[in-house]
Write a structure and sequence with these properties.
Chain lengths: 354, 86
């Protein structure tokens, strides 16, 4: 059995129901705004089903400072990427939650990346990590995955141009070793792949594996599918293995990574649920709706159960051909803004109650 | 292994810590822990691991990178790679 993809539906339901109930109790005790919101929406009674665990809309972290630890205990603040002018989420981490995130990320990725660190090319700029106390989603992702790498090489210059010569040297130095590539989906496409096409660069990254995440929205606008992405990266750059992941700064660590069959999987630490965008009722397998993410990790902030703005579909549970247990699913994009505003009344809460 | 080398390894590791974390070697003792001082954060940790790899000519496993949560833990992990301390 491959950990952490080893629990069957029944086992996982029991484990998560217990831990998420405890977390809900914990956050109600330690975050007054969280308690006020839960109380206002009917309170929290010991649930018998995972779907009864209350959830917050993920956008709430952009509007409110939500944390369940004293400010002195915060060691790191994560922020969502957000374009200029947009409000960003703020996620407060204490030592314990930060350590749990790093540990679980390693656990979740190990079945794909193994225990040996690989020479690593980061398809991003080093300047992302300039501020050491506060990380963007990009910085958090890079740092988290850096654990799997050694001899880290940042392939993009500060002006987002790519250092082909540096890559060439790096590959020459590490001929014969498996190379780990990491980057954000859109940036890999725009600043690496498209640049390679433009300048006629063809490469052979050899025995390499690319891990990428951060969402498809911009690529969908350009009508690039997951299959095209993989095929093109193989053709142009010789990247043979590509694994996408679905994750967010509000739930770092327990991410959902693609198996060898291209399905996103829920590890034993986390689960998803699909909800109807209008009624918020849970939807069965095969139906598209809003993705709710649940994770055992968020302890320093009440982010253990969140309703995202992403649309997805559960493809199955415990029976993926890759052999991993748990739900597997696909993400099909983000809910259009208009619809979101339409149902945002549901999320209204009394801000005076803080 | 003779006592001299054992002592040297401790000094060598101290020097690596002080250079990678940019801290005074005086404050390095067995209890020095990850995230207990501002200088030893997740970014500095990567630099520290890279220096240890290079200077001792080893390749730490992913799990060991995570487990290296204090100076004494670092010594304990390094003994797995046949580097001896007192």
């Amino acid at each position: 059995m491959i950990q952490p993809y080893h629990l069957t539906k029944q086992e996982k339901q029991e484990k998560l129901l217990k831990s998420l109930t405890e977390l809900t109790d914990y956050h109600m005790e330690n975050s007054a705004p969280y308690r006020a919101m839960i109380d206002k929406s009917g309170g929290f009674n010991q649930p018998s089903l995972l779907e009864d665990i209350p959830y917050l809309p993920v956008q709430l972290f952009k509007l409110m400072e939500l944390k369940s630890v004293e400010s002195e205990k915060v060691v790191k603040v994560l922020t969502s990427s957000g374009t200029t002018g947009q409000q960003v989420s703020k996620i407060y981490l204490d030592k314990e939650t930060a350590a749990a995130q790093t540990k679980v990320l390693v656990d979740v990725m190990k079945p794909i990346l193994g225990a040996k660190r690989m020479p690593m090319i980061i398809l991003d700029t080093k300047s992302v990590l300039k501020d050491r106390r506060s990380f963007s989603a990009r910085g958090a992702g890079i740092l988290g995955f850096s654990t799997f790498g050694r001899k880290h090489f940042y392939a993009l210059n500060d002006d987002m141009t790519i250092d082909w010569q540096g890559i060439e040297q790096f590959l020459a130095q590490h001929t014969g070793s498996k190379i780990l590539l990491f980057g954000f989906t859109f940036m890999v496409w725009k600043y690496v792949y498209q640049e390679a096409v433009k300048s006629g660069q063809t490469f052979d990254f050899g025995d390499s594996v690319l891990i990428h995440g951060g969402g498809w929205k911009k690529l969908q606008d350009e009508a690039v599918s997951a299959d095209t992405f993989k095929e093109e990266l193989h053709r142009q750059l010789g990247i043979r293995r590509v694994h996408n992941y679905y994750g967010m700064v509000e739930q770092v660590g327990s991410i959902f990574v693609e198996c060898s069959y291209g399905h996103l999987h829920t590890p034993s630490y986390a689960d998803i649920m699909i909800r109807d965008p209008i009624t918020f009722q849970p939807l069965p397998q095969g139906q598209q709706g809003l993705i709710q993410v649940m994770s055992e990790l968020p302890k320093s902030y009440p982010g253990h159960s969140l309703l995202t703005e992403d649309l997805g579909t559960i493809l199955g549970e415990d029976d993926c051909l890759c052999g991993w247990k748990g739900k597997y699913f696909s993400v099909s994009g983000r809910i259009p803004k208009a619809e979101l505003r339409g149902c945002s009344d549901t999320f209204a809460f009394d801000r005076k109650g803080r | 292994m003779c006592k001299g080398v054992v002592k040297l390894n401790e000094q060598k590791l101290k020097l690596i810590f002080s250079e990678a974390l940019e801290i005074d070697p005086e404050i390095i003792n067995d209890e020095l822990a990850y995230n207990s001082i501002a200088e030893w954060d997740s970014i500095a940790h990567m630099a520290l691991v890279a220096e240890i790899d290079d200077q001792f000519d080893i390749m730490l496993d992913t799990d060991d990178v995570l487990d290296m949560s204090s100076f004494s833990k670092a010594k304990e992990i390094l003994t797995k790679y046949d580097i001896t301390f007192e």
